[in-house]
Amino acid sequence: MTTTQPPHLPLGSLPPREHLRLGQIATVLDVVIPVYNEESDLEPCVRRLHDHLARTFPYGFRITIADNASTDRTPDVAARLDDAIHEVTAVRLEQKGRGRALRTVWSHSDAPVLAYMDVDLSTDLNALLPLVAPLISGHSDLAIGSRLSRSSRVVRGPKREFISRTYNLILRGSLAARFSDAQCGFKAIRGDVAERLLPMVEDTGWFFDTEMLVLAERAGLRIHEVPVDWVDDPHSTVHIVRTATDDLKGVWRVGRALATGALPLDRLARPFGDDPRDRELSGVPGGLARQLVGFCVVGGLSTLLYLALYSLFRLGVGPQLANAGALLVSAVANTAANRRLTFGVRGRDRAVRHQAQGLVVFAIGLVLTSGSLAALDAASGTPSHGTELAVLVAANLAATVLRFLLFRAWVFPDRERRNDLVGIDAADAVDESQPQPEAQPQPQPYASHNDRNSRNSRNDRNDRNDFTRSAR
Predict the structure, then answer these.
(1) Using alpha carbons only, what angle is made at residue 292 by residues 287 and 293, rounded to the nearest 5 degrees?
(2) Packing angle, helices 42-56 and 128-137, rounded to 10
(3) pTM of the predicted protein model
């Protein structure tokens, strides 16, 4: 069976989500089953899945067996199923890794909806249609089965229950993940989303799922969750301790990349956006409400930092010097936080200029607060420390309103942010039309967007050479 790759579009060119035009698509769903040494379970699993899809799925489908360098008779069983069942395709990879298998097969699939499930079929197959329906309708970008939903029915031992819940709590605490179950082997993704998202996912093993979901969530993609009925496979060959250790290393790597801003997630945020909050309305500046909330949060924290620094500096110097020093330090932190969190500017481009403009805004605030202190001193002679703080709070409120207006209109204008997005799209289109440079030895993870795409493109080419697809 030959597959046709859809035309490659430059990053950032995805249209808003819409219902798939199913009448023009022969194969709507491609279900991948990654396997390693599963000669006993593979055939009954595939036949059961095929029977279920033939009875319940109203569109064309394909079942792809992704063999991860098995050393037993799994390749022979897969080849036999490929020959016997029209909708089954066998793929052989010469390297292990569930993430590598999914990335390779999904990247070569022509189906608009891609899914995968574990070979043991622990998840009740009645959840498959609810899993992919939101992707077909255009409502969601990804869908996952959840064993931790209140309406899920799960049968498994206390050890696996503890490990699963602990791992998901770690994800919530360290990566601020909002999805409930990262490890359930029952997931789906739209093909156009996978084309843009997969090059950003580095893991090739069991952490692949988690990394994909975290990046998708941080990029603003919609993840649909389906409660599932799930029965644990007591004969599972997954090495729990090794897998847990690799997952924790992955959490640290992704968390560090998110904390340093090394991931170009802003390049994925707009293309998928049919968010009604992003629509332009006459008389309503775009994104104003969200910017106000972010600015107020940052401003409140900056004010607390300013007051703490002022009180500290006041122990050794006069009020004017203490005010100037506290305002300078808090202004630098305030500009950096607003640049990234409020106005969504990432990377180092124009960072120095933004800080310089922020210092001009700081100078205006300094004039307001220093003038207030001078007026207070002239009016009362020797005001108390509490009176000084009250006057400074009032002056800072006035300076905050002015700071927001200057930030929005001058330091981070909306036109400049839009030009950044257009420039990113144009740069990506140019980069993709030119040969990619060779990677340096031992590249650092998340070094840059182009480095990541170049490295993952070479990995995809290597994987393409490593497996053979059975031809009909």
Answers:
(1) 105
(2) 50
(3) 0.60
